[in-house]
Amino acid sequence: MKSIKLYLGDSHKITKDIVKANSVDCIFTTPPTFTKSIKDENSVNQYTDTMSKYFISIIDLLKPNGVLALDVLNIQGTTIIPRLIYNMTSPVKKYRYIMDIPIITSRVISGCGINFSNRKILLFKKVSASPTFKMEKELLHSYVWHENFPVSMKDYVVSSAIKNVKSDSSMLAYHSEGFLFTSRIIKVFCDNGGLMLDPFMGIGTSTLACMHDNVNFIGIELYDRIFKIAVENARSISPHTGYSVEVYGK
Question: What is this structure's pTM?
């Protein structure tokens, strides 16, 4: 049976204990960004050092051609994105940087007037991975944002984000866009029935995208309140998708 496994805990401590080496097609996540605490280059350095060390530590979980996709919001006036890229690729040379993709074109975002012009997907692969990046880039750009997404699933993601997190247009845009782009990443980088890992899961938008696109999922969330929302969302959809939902933690 297709499976969704949700863990409550600190991803920095438990990821390598719960995920097998060479088992993951794609690690796709939004690294937590604490905008109030990132105010200068010292705080940027501390944040990017912590994040890059974590992602380097779990590189062995990826399959030989697995991909790491980071949904990053580059806080205005800081160097988070270039520093992350540098830390991940040099001098340790564990990852090869493929490209970044701005998320600025969705009709959902345009419709509510929210500017996410600093939000990008950063794509990395293992240094040892096969050099098929040109084909993957063409595939990524070939998908239309709203192509082949059932209205019922998209509406569920939007209503869930508004109901469970914050009832405003920015949440509608953010989680709709997250679902649609996760689905695009799955189509290009995940085998049918493969495995996606999201170590900073949040309310589980990526969980729902995996259910939609026939991919198994492991998600980790640190905060109990947010974790409960992710569990509720997954269990609400699972009867309609043939997925089992396994919950670990409190």
Answer: 0.82
**For residue 77, what are the contacts with CB-CB under 8 A and spacing of at least 6?**
none
CATH of 2-248, one of 1.10.3720.10, 3.40.50.150, 3.40.1010.10, 3.40.640.10: 3.40.50.150
Cβ partners under 8 Å of residue 171, min gap 6: 161, 162, 165
H helix count then E strand count, the chain: 9, 8
Where are the extended beta strands (E) located within 182-242?
195-198, 216-221
Cβ 218 vs Cβ 14: under 8 Å? no
Between residues 236 and 124, the one the model is more confident about: 124
Express each pLDDT in 51-85 by its tens digit.
999 999 999 999 988 899 988 866 555 678 888 88
Alpha helices in 25-105 (DSSP H): 41-57, 80-89
Question: Which contiguous run of DSSP H or E holds residue 11?
Answer: helix 11-18
Q: At residue 194, does pLDDT exceed 70?
A: yes
